[in-house]
Amino acid sequence: MSFLDSLKAAFRKKDDQATYLSGFKKSNQSFGNKLGEMQYHFKGVDDAFLEQLTIILLEADVGIHTADYICEQLKIKCKEYPSITFHWAMNFLIETMQECYEEVEDKPIQFNENGPTVFLLEGVNGSGKTTTTAKLGYSFLKQSKKVAFTAADTFRAGAIEQLQEWGNRLSIPVIAGKENGDPSAAIVDGCRYAKENQMDILLCDTAGRLQNKVNLMAELSKMNKVAGREIEGAPHNTWLVLDATTGQNGLSQAKIFAESTKLTGIILTKMDGTAKGGIVLAIKHQLHIPVLYLGLGEKQEDLRPFDLQSYLYSISKGLEDAR
Questions:
Q1: What is the dihedral of CA 204, 256, 226, 200, to 10 degrees?
Q2: Reported pTM
Q3: pLDDT at 156 exceeding the cut of 90
Q4: Terminal CA-to-CA distance of the chain, rounded, Å?
């Protein structure tokens, strides 16, 4: 059985088939279908083929560094065979993409066994950070966890009210900072509330003023310190929320936030929009930060844990008929 066939078989066993396929519809059109069209001009894995493949990878937001790596690894794989069909070239391509993602092993999500687990959620305005905080809260509620929110995005107009509205909807308590106030003060209040009320999870919607990098670094550093003073080991997880439709600009944002704080995971939102999917590989390959969740819709249940096999199948579905 080829890698593509095994990927298809594994995908059919997943629970979220329809959600993943619908969320990656545009990614499939911009990547899988274009790859499939290459079979009509296929004469082997030569320079012309690799040049066209590089273009398709770039159009899918994989980025030049990761695209070059994938093409080089594919070239090495195919050299082992005197001749190769298009089907097997694509088989090796998707296999190489998986190896690219898995090159650095993902670290598991950290949970605090001696009190509340603190999550700091970072991201620029418009990334979907506050809504993602709410979706994560819903997900943890479904796992029978006691959840609280901290509204520490004190500089964005309406951010506190938005999280409070979600809190009312989900029956999750919200510890709110003061508008234009110190985000770290809200983190302190949230940590103390979580300890006093024996919460399992504290999700902190933090500030992210990327236009002023110095202020951003200072604020994030302070928030990390005060959380650690209140709860041992906090923040236990620091996740960056990125708008996937921004493509390589999202990768640039991730690099800046990674310089400011120790990121342990990425959440990509708006994958069902105009996102092209390749940003997943670029982030993991270049920053070695795992993609943990994907936003595949607007509903509270549309935040899905990232699954590599489902991702690869969904973006490459246009290769089903490759020969």
A1: 30
A2: 0.91
A3: no
A4: 14
